[in-house]
């Protein structure tokens, strides 16, 4: 009788350990900090195309609006910002909302407002963008 009770207690203990290990082994997903920065945005884009070196000529100076979006990028610390039909950037985003990329300076003023300044590094010409966006 003692041996049967011991076997029952042992099987209950093993069952309890297996049950508890199920909850311990379930890994909770960490919240992706980028999610609060993604969504649909109304972009106001000031675009300036220019040529020249020490003196330059402006070829285009225009401002337009575009309904674009921000989505998570290809790695854990990046976002894609589609700010016009043919223009998008994949930028590094930090938890404080600051953005960085090649020839780009930007930040989220808050989760609903973005400011970006894009400037080329090449001599001889390029296209500059100054972009403001508000969540739609």
Model description:
There is one protein chain. The chain has 136 residues and is of the alpha+beta class. The chain has a single domain (33-135), classed as Beta Barrel (Lipocalin). It is 18% helix and 54% strand. It has an 8-stranded antiparallel barrel. The longest helix has 24 residues, at 2-25.
Brief sketch in words of this structure:
The chain is of the alpha+beta class and 136 residues long.
Strand percent estimate: over 45%
CATH class: Mainly Beta
What is the CATH topology descriptor? Lipocalin
Number of domains: 1
CATH architecture: Beta Barrel
Ends distance = 73 Å
By secondary-structure content and strand pairing, the structural class works out as: alpha+beta
- Please work out how many helical segments DSSP would assign: 1
Largest sheet: 8 strands, antiparallel, barrel
- Based on CA atoms alone, the radius of gyration comes out at 27 Å
Helix content: 10-25%
What is the chain-wise order of helices and strands? HEEEEEEEE
Tell me the overall shape: elongated
Please list the strands of the largest sheet in the order they lie side by side: 1-2-3-4-5-6-7-8
Total DSSP E strands = 8
Report the average pLDDT across residues. 85
Which regions have little confidence, pLDDT < 50, spanning 5+ residues?
none
What's the helix and strand layout?
Elements: H1 2-25, E1 39-52, E2 56-72, E3 78-84, E4 87-93, E5 98-101, E6 104-110, E7 113-118, E8 124-135
Antiparallel strand pairs: 1-2, 1-8, 2-3, 3-4, 4-5, 5-6, 6-7, 7-8
């Amino acid at each position: 009788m003692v041996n049967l009770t011991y076997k029952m207690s042992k099987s209950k203990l093993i069952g309890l350990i297996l049950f508890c290990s199920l909850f311990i082994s379930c890994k909770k997903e960490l919240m992706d900090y980028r999610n609060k920065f993604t969504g649909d945005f109304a972009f106001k884009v000031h675009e300036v195309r220019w040529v020249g070196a020490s003196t330059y000529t402006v070829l285009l100076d225009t401002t337009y609006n575009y309904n674009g979006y921000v989505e998570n990028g290809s790695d854990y610390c990046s976002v894609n910002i589609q700010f016009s039909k043919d223009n998008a950037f994949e930028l590094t985003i930090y938890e404080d909302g600051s953005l960085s990329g090649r020839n780009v300076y930007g930040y989220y003023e808050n989760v609903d407002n973005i400011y970006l300044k894009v400037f080329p590094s090449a001599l001889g010409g390029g296209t500059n963008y100054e972009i403001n966006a508000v969540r739609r």
